[in-house]
Design goal:
Blueprint (H helix, E strand, L loop, with lengths): L6 E8 L2 H12 L2 E6 L5 E7 L2 E8 L11 E7 L3 H5 L8 E9 L3 E7 L5 E7 L3 H5 L1
Parallel strand pairs: 1-4, 5-8
Antiparallel strand pairs: 1-5, 2-3, 3-4, 6-7, 7-8
C-alpha cells in the first residue's frame, strides 16, 4: 500500500544497463526481470527475492545528451493530474505532462521550486489492494 507524499519508486537512469545490473547483482544480490517499454527496449526491474526494489532505465535518445547516469526518485501522489496543476503556481516547472504506464500508474516529471527534478506518480492498485 502506498501513501500520498511518500517516496514510492527509485530507478537508475543509465546508458549501460547490463553493466549496472552486473554491479548491483554482484554487490547487493539483486536479480532482474525485463519488461518491454512502449518506445522500444527493455526496462529492468530489480528484485530482492520476489519483491521489486527499483528499476534500471536505459537512457537512449537525444533527450538524454549530456545527462550523467543517476538515480531518480518518484513520489506517490493521490491524483497526479490535480497535483501537477499546482506546480507552476508554486514556482515549479512541468517537464513531462502526466502519462500512463500500463500496470504501473500515471506519472509526471516535474522540477520543484529550486529546480530539483522528481517524478510524481499515482500508482495503479496492486492485486491485494483491489481485493480490500
Amino acid at each position: 500500500m502506498w501513501t500520498h507524499g511518500s517516496f514510492y519508486w527509485n530507478e537508475l537512469m543509465t546508458r549501460d544497463v547490463e553493466r549496472s545490473a552486473a554491479f548491483y547483482g554482484d554487490i547487493l544480490g539483486w536479480t532482474f526481470e525485463t519488461m518491454p517499454m512502449p518506445e522500444g527496449g527493455n526496462y529492468w526491474v530489480a528484485k530482492v527475492g520476489d519483491g521489486p526494489v527499483g528499476g534500471l532505465f536505459p537512457m537512449q535518445g537525444p533527450e538524454f545528451e549530456g545527462m550523467p547516469d543517476h538515480w531518480f526518485s518518484y513520489i506517490a501522489v493521490d491524483d497526479v493530474d490535480a497535483r501537477v496543476g499546482g506546480v507552476r503556481g508554486a514556482g515549479g516547472e512541468v517537464i513531462r505532462e502526466p502519462f500512463d504506464v500500463a500496470g504501473v500508474g500515471r506519472i509526471a516529471i516535474i522540477k520543484d521550486a529550486t529546480g530539483a527534478a522528481v517524478g510524481w506518480m499515482t500508482p495503479v492498485p496492486m492485486e491485494d489492494e483491489k481485493a480490500s
